[in-house]
Amino acid sequence: MHTLMISIKHYQKIDQNLRHDRTFDWQHFTLIMESEFEHFLIERVTQQEIHLCLKSNVYEKSSIVLKNKKIYRRPGHHPYLYHVKSWDLVQNEPFITISVQLTNDQVFAHTFHTNFDGVDEWNEK
């Protein structure tokens, strides 16, 4: 009976870990961000936000921010990832690395190839 209880607790622990794993949310976030970076130019990066402009209309501005434990694009409210404790943005043109720590203490990082404002024009010359 004791062995059965230990086995059940072990499998319950595995089940709990699988339910709290946010790897699929992170993969979804990276796919969305890759798509966004195809349509936007990055104007500048700070620790708080990524400032963007639309490729087809550079006067249409937006930004990606971490606020209230979620990463989203504004103006408006276009959420990308929830339950984010902190993030770190590292700019190394034409790449940007986004590292996040989630509220369950999982840590993820991804380096995106992006278009910084002015990079495309320089490459075309």
From TrEMBL:
It comes from the Bacteria. InterPro entries: ComGF. This is Putative Competence protein ComGF. It comes from Facklamia miroungae.
